[in-house]
Amino acid sequence: MPARPVRRRTAAALRRAFVLGAIGVLGLLGLTSCRVGGDDDGAAAGPVVIAPGRPGEGSRTLSPGQAARERPDDSPNAADLSYVRRMTEHHRQALTMTALAPQRASAEPVKRLAERIAAAQRPEIAVMESWLAGHPDPGTPPTGGSGPATDGRPATDGPAAHDHGAAAMPGMATAQQLAELGAATGPDFDRLFLRLMIAHHEGAVTMAGEALAGGNNGAVEEMANEVVAQQSAEVRRMRAMG
User: Fold this and answer.
1) Interacting residues of 168 by C-beta distance below 8 A, sequence separation 6+
2) Is 146 exposed, middle or buried, given 0-12, 13-18 or 19+ CB atoms closer than 10 A?
3) How many structural domains compose the chain?
4) Where residue 200 sits, what CATH number does that domain have?
5) Strand ranges, E, within 92-144
6) SS (H, E, C) 31-90
7) What sign for the dihedral angle of Cα 210, 80, 114, 109?
8) 237 lies in a domain?
9) Would you say the C-alpha torsion 103, 109, 114, 118 has a positive or negative sign?
10) Do 217 and 120 fall into the same domain?
């Protein structure tokens, strides 16, 4: 199992926290002041924001306009866009795999595990698709696919089911592995499902670690941290079940 990425706040996140903390001081302390001279926003009077300085530095007084301009830019970069696009497809394959469990698994813990994975990743797909809709990447076609099969068969016509797509993302099952899983039943299905899903989760954690290291967007950082926490815990549970 690859080393779990350290969940650290990126430089962009730290800058966000600093500025948002500065803005919050006004609300917490109720500090307002009348400005007697005009500022660069053209306002003659109004509230001010007391921004605490860095260690060893004094506080600064900012107008609301200045505080807004000093908010860090967390525009999505290429790493953010790639992560959300690829993780959406990664999650879709997990749903394809979990859809097989109710009819083919023999162990109740495996069935419950599949149900929990599907319940967690289905809404995460919706969140990521919504984020992608708000941050379109003109250089890349939108993520597509047939979605998970619901009749006990693996999907065979979406990007998640093809070897070329699997090779691009760590942990993705190949088309042959999905076919083997779809043909297995009973204890054989349980063992193969756990093996493939452990690899799938480990791959997701690897992808999340890459996004945390190279991304810039706060929302993507939160999504990646959630994947690290949730799927690392599930890997431990699946290893104990195997």
Assistant:
1) 86
2) middle
3) 2
4) 1.20.1260.10
5) none
6) CCCCCCCCCCCCCCCCCCEEECCCCCCCCEEECHHHHHHCCCCCCCCHHHHHHHHHHHHH
7) positive
8) yes
9) positive
10) yes
Q: Are residues 173 and 113 in the same domain?
A: yes
| 67 vs 160: CA distance, rounded Å | 44
Q: Is residue 62 part of a domain?
A: yes
Give the Cα separation of 159 and 166 in Å (integer). 8
* 199: Cβ contacts below 8 Å, ≥ 6 apart: 171, 173
Asked if residue 175 lies in contact with residue 162, where contact means CB atoms within 8 angstroms, the answer is yes
Q: Within this chain, do residues 86 and 65 fall inside the same structural domain, yes or no?
A: no
- Token digits for 98? 């979990």
What is the model's pTM? 0.67
Residue 149 is which amino acid?
A
- What distances in angstroms separate CA 78 from CA 7, 81, 137, 156, one per listed residue? 20, 5, 9, 29
Give dist(CA 50, CA 26) in Å, integer: 7
Q: Are 36 and 56 contained in the same domain? A: yes
**2 occurs within a structural domain:** no
Q: What is the pLDDT along the chain (242 residues), one digit of tens a residue?
A: 444 454 445 545 544 544 444 444 434 344 444 444 444 444 445 677 776 766 777 777 877 777 666 667 889 999 999 999 999 999 999 999 999 999 999 999 999 999 999 999 999 999 999 999 999 876 655 444 434 443 444 443 443 344 444 457 999 999 999 999 999 999 999 999 999 999 999 999 999 999 999 999 999 999 999 999 999 999 999 999 97
Domain that holds residue 189: 78-241
Question: Cα(19)–Cα(24) distance, rounded to whole angstroms?
Answer: 9
